[in-house]
TrEMBL record:
InterPro entries: TRPC4AP (IPR022162). This is Transient receptor potential cation channel, subfamily C, member 4 associated protein b. It comes from Hucho hucho. GO terms for biological process: ubiquitin-dependent protein catabolic process. Pfam families: DUF3689 (PF12463).
Length: 771
């Protein structure tokens, strides 16, 4: 019988499709009505499929749901997942290979459809179902089925951040994934999925909550442990603050008062250190030598060709999976760290791929070690790194790194800026950050030298008739570098060859500076002076044309540590800066950004003060009279000008770890003035400057507020106070006394800031500390 109804119009079909999608979205958000494909008839789904271009995904999901009961045929489930998987993997590969400038404009309809019709939720149920039943005869899922389920979920996460966030919000699923890591055949897929999930999770997981964490980590071979470090990096690092205002010291102090207990990341660091053999294995991974099957010239070309492709974590993981599977087919899997190196596949891969893959391992391992080195358990970590000879191992590895001029594609970046570095660049920067953390204010810094270099330091001390520092005397020579050069000397060699704008210069200078930081050591300074470091720094600041503020700041800081209290360094400075033009260029660089150069200014002022107390020494008198830098700073009006600018460029609301040094440099100027009974004269000069600039009270009120903050900040921080004392050679007691004198409320005190502010402009009572 013919129907009286005509054919359905395209517009009607489109409206029907929208109705289905609307009903599903409503059901998923409210928990009522339709929420997945299984609740819609297969006939309706097939009818709408072609018009909506769903590629049969809703129908496949409905069949998957019908087939996925507790005692279902797992082979049928696997067959359906294999059928739907190519639609999603195709979009995931498209995502990771797209130009990143256009990737946000792209849409991934297959992934969207899969998630919308309940595919993600269904796969999670399939994976977790065996763990949620008390039945003992439940069919065991094959490793291949688990891997394919995880791969589909990972592909969905790649294309849709909403899927990743949804999975991250499920604590039960996250902990379940860690249990899958004990299976070597599903490890890779599990690790990559966990990494993505933890990257968007709002609350950091607690490693202690992972079932049998110590035995799990101990079961990993070296290859797996290196990949596990990628996950650990998310769990032991403090989360990014986001808003710049939250990076201020005021905000950080308020946060510490509100949360005095150790953070999740600190608790996780302790959990890792309690795993037997963990640090030792990381040291072995970090110092494992990179294969060098091909010559260096062809290697450089290959690295450039492979850079774009290999910089994607998904492809790197696929490469590792290929190597693992090949090794399994050729021999019984070994937990020995050389198993990957002996894999037949590795002999077929381009040499550059082998090296980059090894480098990617080391980037993650060095990052974990670096974070642990700057954590609360620093001394414990230091002891273990020394015991397991990390530094000698890195020294032996140093020549395997590729120090070369960067291509034009390498954009200079700052130390806190996220960048898209190639693996080799990331490796070198992480390597330098580790050296910086290792040497900074720690006696183990002398492990960066070899026996011959330690003997040289002894000879320098002997010639100068000064005692060797305690840290040097206590250095265990069984743990130092071997070979012709120590790690510090090798670093100096490559540092002097770097192009002017290379971002490596920043990290290299930071690493060398950390060796000098702490209590000033004349022998350490001379050791570096003899290797031309001062001349290299001055060339970089004056003659190289370097414009990078980050690099210049690091060189200013390094120069300050190198010259502090060292008469030989000032002689060398005067020999290099031998014309008025050079001196003016140098001072222009200093004055162009006082936040960057204030540590050097502090060094010059402190050194001048000491030299002026040693006028019985002919050599000192000669330098005082001839050195243009010391002569410039000896003029009191120049010191006052620096003080005025330093106080003027900061206030409590914008103080950060980066610019708080300006406050301390200001305080050094005031302390030295007080020591010479010139503090009242100094405060009077500031008052006169205020009136000359036509804003009376502004500068002194700001200084008063800054010093109140200083008291609150430093009197509760032992580490910071020790650093101030060591770097200035002024007792912390004198720091505290000077601040108290300046903040005295007695209006008759000639050394109190309040005495120099007219009552009409006085604003000393504001409570800035409550945020």
């Amino acid at each position: 019988m013919a129907t009286t109804e005509g054919p359905e119009s395209p517009r009607t079909r489109r409206n029907s499709n929208k109705n289905i999608l609307t009903r599903i979205r409503h059901g998923q958000s409210t928990g009522r009505a339709i929420s997945r494909a299984a609740e819609i008839s297969e006939a309706l789904l097939q009818e709408r499929d072609q018009q909506a271009q769903w590629h049969g995904i809703p129908v496949l999901l409905q069949r998957l749901y019908d087939s996925s009961h507790l005692n279902s045929d797992l082979s049928q489930i696997h067959s359906i997942i294999k059928e739907v998987s190519p639609f999603l993997s195709m979009e995931a590969m498209s995502f990771v290979t797209e130009d990143r400038r256009t990737v946000q404009k792209s849409t991934y309809p297959n992934t969207y459809t899969f998630d919308l019709f309940g595919g993600v939720e269904l796969l999670v149920e399939i994976l977790m179902r065996p763990t949620l039943t008390t039945q003992t005869n439940v069919p065991k899922m094959s490793d291949d089925l688990v891997k394919d389920c995880l791969s589909v979920l990972y592909n969905c996460c790649i294309c849709m951040e909403g899927v990743t966030k949804s999975l991250a919000s499920r604590d039960d699923f996250v902990m379940f994934l860690f249990t899958l890591m004990s299976n070597k055949k599903t490890f890779l897929q599990t690790a990559t999925l966990i990494e993505d999930i933890l990257g968007v999770r709002k609350e950091m997981i607690q490693l202690e909550d992972i079932p049998n964490l110590p035995s799990l980590v101990q079961s990993f071979n070296q290859q797996q442990l290196a990949n596990f470090c990628r996950i650990l990096s998310v769990t032991i690092s403090e989360p990014e603050m986001g808003n710049d205002d939250k990076h201020t010291l005021l905000a950080k102090n308020a946060q510490q008062r509100a949360n005095p207990c150790p953070s999740h990341s600190e608790v996780n660091q302790v959990a890792l250190l309690n795993i037997p053999g963990f640090i030792e294995r990381l040291c072995k991974l970090a110092t494992r030598k990179v294969s060098e099957a091909s010559g260096p010239s062809s290697l450089l070309l290959e690295l450039q060709d492979w850079y774009t492709w290999l910089d994607n974590a998904l492809v790197l993981d696929a490469l590792m999976q290929m190597a693992t599977e090949d090794a399994e087919q050729s021999s019984t899997e070994s937990s020995d760290e050389s198993s990957l190196a002996t894999s037949p596949l590795r002999h077929r891969l381009p040499q550059s791929m082998k090296i980059v893959h090894e480098i990617m391992y080391k980037v993650e391992v060095l990052y974990v070690l670096c974070v642990l080195l700057i954590g609360r358990q620093r001394n414990q970590v230091h002891k273990m790194l020394a015991e397991f000879k990390l530094i000698p191992g890195l020294n032996n590895l140093f020549d395997k790194l590729i120090w070369r001029k960067q291509t034009s594609s390498h954009v200079l970046h700052g130390q806190n800026q996220n960048c898209d570095c190639s693996p080799e660049i990331s490796f070198k920067i992480q390597f330098l950050r580790l050296l910086q953390s290792f040497s900074d204010h720690h006696e183990n810094k002398y492990l960066l030298l070899n026996a011959q270099e330690l003997n040289e330091l002894s000879a320098i001390s002997l010639k100068a008739s000064i005692p060797e520092v305690e840290a040097f005397v206590n250095t265990d020579r069984n743990l130092i570098c071997d070979g012709k050069k120590g790690l510090l000397t090798r670093l100096l060699s490559v540092m002097k060859k770097e192009p002017a704008e290379s971002s490596f210069r920043f990290w290299q200078a930071r690493a060398v500076e950390s060796f000098l930081r702490g209590a000033t050591s004349y022998a350490d300074q001379v050791f570096l002076l003899k290797r031309g470091l001062l001349e290299h720094i001055l060339f970089s600041i004056i003659d190289s044309g370097c414009k990078s503020r980050d690099v210049l700041q690091s060189y200013f800081d390094l120069l300050g540590e190198l010259m502090k209290f060292n008469i030989d360094a000032f002689k060398r400075f005067n020999k290099y800066v031998n014309t008025e033009e050079k001196f003016q260029t140098f001072m222009t660089q200093i004055n162009s950004s006082l936040v960057d150069s204030n540590m050097l200014v502090r060094c010059i002022i402190l050194s001048l003060d000491r030299f002026e107390s040693q006028i019985e020494n002919v050599s000192v008198v000669e330098v005082l009279s001839e050195c243009s830098l010391l002569s410039y700073m000896a003029r009191v009006e120049n010191r006052h000008a620096f003080l005025f600018r330093l106080v003027n460029i900061i206030n409590v609301q914008i103080l950060t770890q980066e610019n708080v040094s300006c406050l301390n440099t200001s305080l050094v100027v005031l302390m030295l003035a007080r020591r010479r009974d010139k503090l009242a004269f100094c405060l009077k000069a500031l008052r006169e400057k205020e009136y000359a600039e036509k804003y009376p009270g502004c500068l002194l009120n700001n200084l008063h507020t800054l010093l109140r903050f200083w008291q609150r900040h430093y009197l509760n921080k032992d580490k910071d106070s020790t650093c101030l004392e060591n770097s200035s050679c002024i007792s912390f007691t004198y720091w505290k006394e000077t601040v108290s004198v300046l903040l005295d409320s007695d209006p008759t005190s000639l050394c109190a800031i309040a005495s120099y502010i007219d009552e009409a402009y006085m604003d000393l009572g504001r409570d800035f500390l409550q945020v």
